[in-house]
Design brief:
alpha/beta; 6-stranded parallel β-sheet; 19 strands; 369 residues; globular
């Protein structure tokens, strides 16, 4: 069967032939891959910035954003059945007994760093025709969201971050007068940095919770992304014409910053304008660039005197996947056109080279098997 793989030793990215996998344990499930999303991580792996093949292998099958159909199940499988649509998680636990996080199924908080990740670190990914995985790592998707279900994994980034924000803000009276659990953000202002898939999905998740959302990105105002943002009730400010100071003036007290741009210079400049009791969430991983000059005294003073919190968030557990599946359904009901427009292209696997080189534009491009 076909698979898209990187071969680090010879720095090649190829469509290779691999043997179909077989069930080898009672809790295993065979999956037919339907769609695999292309993201910045895939492009960086294809540029050999990182990515590790499984031990003993010379290649790594890439792809971690996926949608699949169950085609066969082991004897003890009870969570899924043939014909189910599923989205697999990405990270697998480390082997160490002393890692409390991994032993409790929260490998997204692994203490040792010896976890593996499908399509990224020491475990083959999903950009192939058939995959075998354990049922414990599968999340069932209702058929009603099949057309956008490949967005579940990137949405989990926002879902995990928002869950942590809720926990962090239990440190103070943060609710809104008369709010309900589904409307917790109604009196709060959120800024989203970046209008890529992770940023746009994060903006939708915040808007669905009632936040007053402003997306800050370099694309010009009046363009397609600005129109998309405005279609689900958020505001758009363009970095091409407005400074970060202007952004802060337009927003007012910034209660939450959701960073999804991976540019540290922009992020730390915005952090200077984080509001009282505010939370700043990093989700981007910048590449190695020239050092950035920042006013550390100012940032530290704000953190202390304004009770601010800064944290980073990566990967996600089952709770975030379940929340993403639920919220994609909510997005389709409230903003059907905006939600569907996030997937801008479905391509045959033969287009892998152009997709990984970034030669095909759009928000989220997908390889469809």
């Amino acid at each position: 069967m076909k698979a898209v793989a990187v071969i680090p030793k010879s720095r090649r990215v190829e469509l290779i032939d691999v043997e179909p996998p077989e069930l080898s344990g009672p809790s295993q499930v065979e999956l037919r891959m339907l769609e695999v999303g292309i993201c910045g991580t895939d492009k960086e792996i294809a540029a050999f910035e990182y990515g590790s093949p499984p031990p003993g292998a010379d290649h790594l099958v890439i792809g971690h954003e996926s949608l699949a159909e169950v085609v066969d199940v082991g004897a003890s499988v009870s969570r899924v059945r043939r014909g189910d649509l599923v989205v697999p998680t990405v990270r697998r636990p480390c082997p160490h007994e002393h890692c409390v996080a991994c032993r409790e199924g929260r490998q997204d908080f692994c203490y040792t760093g010896d976890f593996t990740e499908r399509g990224i670190k020491e475990r083959h990914g999903y950009m192939t025709e058939l995959v075998v995985d354990d049922e414990s790592f599968l999340n069932v998707v209702p058929p009603e969201i099949r057309e956008v279900a490949v967005l579940v994994e990137p949405l989990t980034i926002a879902e995990k971050a928002l869950a942590q924000v809720r926990q962090v803000q239990q440190r103070l009276p943060w609710g809104c007068a008369g709010s309900t659990p589904s409307d917790v953000g109604r009196c709060h202002r959120a800024v989203v940095l970046g209008a890529g898939p992770v940023g746009l999905l994060g903006a939708m998740a915040l808007a669905a919770e009632g936040f007053q959302v402003t997306v800050f990105s370099r694309e010009p105002s009046g363009g397609p992304k600005a129109a998309l943002v405005e279609s689900f009730g958020a505001a758009y400010v363009s970095g091409a014409t407005d400074s970060i100071e202007t952004l802060a003036t337009k927003v007012g007290n910034i209660d939450l910053v959701y960073e999804a741009v991976g540019a540290s210079a922009v992020a730390f400049e915005v952090m200077k304008f984080l509001g009282v009791n505010g939370v700043f969430v990093f989700t981007g991983v910048p590449g190695r660039r020239k050092p950035v000059t920042i006013d550390t005294d100012l940032l530290m003073r704000h953190l202390v005197l304004q009770n601010q919190v800064v944290f980073g968030s990566v990967n996600a557990g089952r709770d975030a996947f379940e929340a993403a599946i639920r919220d994609l359904g909510r997005f389709l009901e409230r903003w059907p056109q905006a939600t569907r427009s996030l997937v801008t292209g479905r391509h045959p696997v033969d287009a892998y080279a152009e997709l990984l080189a970034g030669k095909i534009g759009g928000i989220k491009n997908v390889v469809a098997f």
